[in-house]
Amino acid sequence: MADPPLVERMRAFVRRGLRPGSPAAFGFAVLCVAAGTLARFAIDMIAPQAVPFATYFPAVLIATLIGGLTAGIFAAVLSGGAAWWLFMPPRTAWDALTSQDLVSVALFLLVAATIVWIAAQYRRLVRRLDEAEHYRQFVVDELSHRVKNKLATVYAILRHELRGHRDIWTSVAGRLRALSAADDFIIKSHGEGIALRQILKAELAPYGSATIALQGCEVLVHDKLAVALALVFHELVTNAAKYGALSSPNGRIDIAWHLDNGDIKVDWIERGGPAVSPPTRRSFGSQLIERSLDSLGGRAKIDFAASGIVCRLSFPRLRDAESRVAEASLVA
Q1: What is the pLDDT of residues 151-210, one digit of tens each?
Q2: What is the Cα–Cα distance from 95 to 90, expressed in whole angstroms?
Q3: Which domains does the chain possess?
């Protein structure tokens, strides 16, 4: 469920902050100290002897996170003066301070300075991360644009060169579209993995849902595996449309997947189509299906049963960041 626009704007404001040293940053610091002062007055009505600086620590922290280092220092000094003048007896007096009062002020300034320094470092780190993420997204978008342009160029060249070989062109064009769709999934996933159901729906969308049943839990697969699966499912659905269950009005495909000891197992079962017999030789599509998952820690097996093709896939599941690193090391 998406967050309301107001919440999104507040998050963006907190993350982006104000320009350090700007009037807005100092004004925000004043507001933070004013809020801390009002909170301290409210506490004073219940517990007059409470620590005078208690409500000013959050004010200094927030002022630094939003307004930067100079705003945090300004808020710390302003907070110390407000607490000293308003909440340390005798009130509204700058003299008659005891050594205990001076120690309290010194400790507040020391703690406030520590808060300001840590918050400023955190703010600087967040801004660097935002800049790095912005640059990364820019590079990804640019690479995506270039890859799509090159793919379109390859598509146009092959269409021209294979204009006299319609069957070969249809097969190649379908595989290029599957690769393009897989690339789109990877770009949109932001490195968080891609849902297996989403890949299947993308490949099966042109054939409707009346004759195709999907059943399985929500699982994610990593980027390289998503590309391989997109090609595998494309080969399976293309074969089903030409020769298998999708070529017959009574045909049906049941696709189910489940988890088994950390692996994802997928069963592709066709029934109701033309009678199937084992081929005399392995086609390129069959070889692609059976070999594409090998280097990624997966397996694929095709059974040419009389009632229809049965393909069983098994491959590792994406669980978290550690598993992604482990899987990447296995691939390498």
Answers
A1: 777 778 777 777 777 777 776 776 666 666 656 665 665 556 778 888 888 777 767 666
A2: 8
A3: 5-129 (no CATH), 193-331 (3.30.565.10)
